[in-house]
Design goal:
Acetylcholine Binding Protein, Chain: A; Methane Monooxygenase Hydroxylase, Chain G, domain 1; six-stranded mixed sheet; four-stranded antiparallel sheet; 45% helix; 20% strand; membrane; Neuro_actylchol_rec; ion channel
Length: 476
C-alpha cells in the first residue's frame, strides 16, 4: 500500500485544480446572474433620478484614410473609450472569492447613446457595436470599441496646397441633456500614441474641449466633447506635378519672344502653352470644392499665369501683324523715339543687346528676285531698242566702216531708238525709287515690331517676377 501513495499526490492536485476552476466559473456566473436579476437596459443606472450619469470620453485616432477636398469629407479609424459608473453593477469582491472585475456583453447593460454629431454614415452611431464591456466591483464600466468614421469637415482650400485644415469631431448624447448625461473629457488632448502617419497630411494637433450648449428655446443644456483635429498638407506632390510644369511652361513662353517676329511658329508656341495651362488648371479645379466664397491660392496662380501667357500671345499677334504690315507711311516720330530707333540707340543695341535687323537674308533674296523680275519686264523693250546699236563696235570705231551708215542711213532712224531707251530707263528708275521707298517704310515697321518684341519681353519678365514675389508673400 505504501508503494502506491506517490501516485495519489498528482491525482489529488488535478482534482483540486478542476474543482477550483469550476468553483471560479460558478462564482462568476453567480455574480452575473445576480447583477442581471431585475436589471433594465433602458433605465439610467442611477438610484437618484435627479443625478446625472457622468460619462467620460477618450478618443484615440488610429489612422486617416482619406480627406476628400471636393466633397468636404474626412474618413479614418478611431478607438472609442467610454467610462461611466453603473450604480446597479456593484458587489463586494470578498463575497465572490476576490473577483474584482467581470466582462459582460455590451447589449446586456445600459449604455449611453453617444454619437458623432457631424458623422455622415448611413446609420450614424444610433446602434452601438455590441462588444464586451468590463465592469469593476465599484460599478465602473469600461466600454471600448474601434470604428471607421466618415465625418463632414469644412475644407478651406484658399491656401492650397499649403493649407491647414481644422476638422471637429463632436461627440455627445443624442437624446439626453446635460442634466441626465454629463459628458466630460478624460484629458485635454486626444490619444495619438497609436496614430499611423499619413503620406499627404502631417498631424499638428488633436485637442479635446467640453461644451455645453442649448438647441431650443427651453434653454435645456446639452453637453458634448469636441475633438479638434488640425492637419497640415504636404505640398511636395503638388509642387512636383503641378507647379513645376507650370513654371516650365512659363519659361518656354518667355523664350518664345526670342523667335523672329516673322516666324509662324511664334504664335503656335504661345497658343500651345496657353492650352497646356488651361488643361493643368482644369485638373486641379476638378479636385477642389466648388465654392464662391473665396478664390484658392492655386486658382490665383493659374489665373495670373494664364493672363500673362495670354498677354504674351496677344503681343505675339501684334508683333506679327506689324511685321507683315503694308503701310504706306512711316512710323510716327514719337514712336521711333520711344523705341530708341535712333543712331545712338542702334549702336547701343548692336554692342550690348545684339543688332535689331528685321530684314534678313531671305528678304534680300526676295529683293534680288524682284529686281530680276523687273529687269525681265523692262528687258524686252530695252533689248528691242538697243538691238541695232549692239551691232556697232564702240571700242574700235575703225572696224565699223560704213556699218553705221548701213544701220542708220538717216539720223531720223536713230532718234526713235534712243528715245525708247531713255523712256524705259526713266520708267525703270521711277519704279526702283518707288519700290525702295516702300521697302524703307516696310523695314522701319519691321524694326518697330522687333523692338516692340523686346519691350514686351521686358514686360513679360516683370510680370513673372511680380507674380512670383506676390505668391511667395501670400504663402509666407
Amino acid at each position: 500500500m505504501q508503494g502506491n501513495w506517490p501516485w495519489l499526490v498528482p491525482l489529488a492536485s488535478v482534482l483540486v485544480a478542476m474543482f477550483a476552476g469550476s468553483l471560479g466559473n460558478f462564482t462568476e456566473k453567480n455574480l452575473v446572474d445576480r447583477l442581471m436579476t431585475g436589471y433594465r437596459t433602458d433605465a439610467r443606472p442611477v438610484k437618484n433620478s435627479s443625478s446625472p450619469v457622468r460619462v467620460t470620453i477618450n478618443v484615440a485616432l488610429a489612422q486617416l484614410l482619406d480627406v476628400n477636398d471636393r466633397d468636404q469629407q474626412i474618413t479614418g479609424i478611431m478607438w472609442m473609450r467610454l467610462y461611466w459608473t453603473d450604480e446597479y453593477l456593484v458587489w463586494d469582491p470578498d463575497d465572490y472569492r476576490g473577483l474584482a472585475a467581470v466582462r459582460m456583453q455590451g447589449s446586456s447593460i445600459w449604455r449611453p447613446d453617444i454619437v458623432l454629431y457631424n458623422g455622415i454614415l448611413q446609420n450614424g452611431f444610433a446602434e452601438l457595436p455590441d462588444t464586451k464591456v468590463t465592469v469593476t466591483s465599484n460599478g465602473t464600466v469600461f466600454y471600448f470599441y474601434p470604428f471607421t468614421f466618415k465625418a463632414s469637415c469644412k475644407i478651406n482650400v484658399i491656401d492650397f496646397p499649403y493649407d491647414t485644415q481644422r476638422c471637429p469631431f463632436k461627440f455627445g448624447s443624442w437624446t439626453f441633456d446635460a442634466l441626465a448625461i454629463d459628458v466630460i473629457s478624460k484629458s485635454s488632448e486626444g490619444d495619438l500614441d497609436q496614430y499611423r502617419k499619413n503620406g499627404e497630411w502631417d498631424m499638428v494637433r488633436f485637442s479635446a474641449q467640453r461644451n455645453v450648449v442649448s438647441y431650443s428655446s427651453s434653454d435645456v443644456p446639452y453637453a458634448d466633447v469636441t475633438f479638434n483635429l488640425v492637419i497640415e498638407r504636404q505640398p511636395l506632390f503638388y509642387i512636383y506635378h503641378i507647379f513645376a510644369p507650370c513654371i516650365v511652361i512659363l519659361l518656354i513662353s518667355l523664350l518664345s519672344f526670342n523667335i523672329p517676329p516673322d516666324s509662324g511658329e511664334k504664335l503656335s508656341l504661345s497658343i500651345t502653352m496657353l492650352l497646356s495651362l488651361i488643361v493643368y488648371m482644369h485638373m486641379v479645379v476638378a479636385s477642389l470644392p466648388a465654392t464662391s466664397n473665396y478664390i484658392p491660392l492655386i486658382g490665383l496662380f493659374f489665373g495670373v499665369i494664364i493672363l500673362v501667357v495670354s498677354m504674351s500671345t496677344i503681343l505675339s499677334i501684334l508683333t506679327i501683324a506689324l511685321n507683315f504690315t503694308n503701310m504706306d507711311t512711316k512710323p510716327p516720330l514719337w514712336l521711333k523715339q520711344k523705341l530708341g530707333m535712333t543712331e545712338v540707340w542702334r549702336w547701343f543695341d548692336c554692342v550690348f543687346c545684339g543688332c535689331v535687323r528685321p530684314v534678313g537674308e531671305h528678304q534680300q533674296e526676295s529683293y534680288r528676285g524682284r529686281e530680276t523680275h523687273q529687269r525681265a519686264e523692262y528687258g524686252s523693250a530695252e533689248e528691242t531698242a538697243m538691238l541695232p546699236l549692239r551691232q556697232i563696235n564702240f571700242e574700235d570705231p575703225s572696224d565699223n566702216g560704213n556699218h553705221i551708215c548701213e544701220l542708220f542711213d538717216d539720223s531720223e532712224d536713230l532718234l526713235p531708238h534712243l528715245h525708247g531707251v531713255i523712256n524705259k530707263l526713266e520708267a525703270w528708275k521711277r519704279d526702283q525709287l518707288k519700290q525702295k521707298k516702300k521697302d524703307d517704310v516696310l523695314n522701319e515697321w519691321k524694326e518697330v515690331a522687333s523692338r516692340l518684341d523686346r519691350v514686351f519681353l521686358l514686360v513679360f519678365i516683370a510680370a513673372c517676377v511680380l507674380v512670383s514675389c506676390t505668391m511667395t508673400y501670400v504663402i509666407a
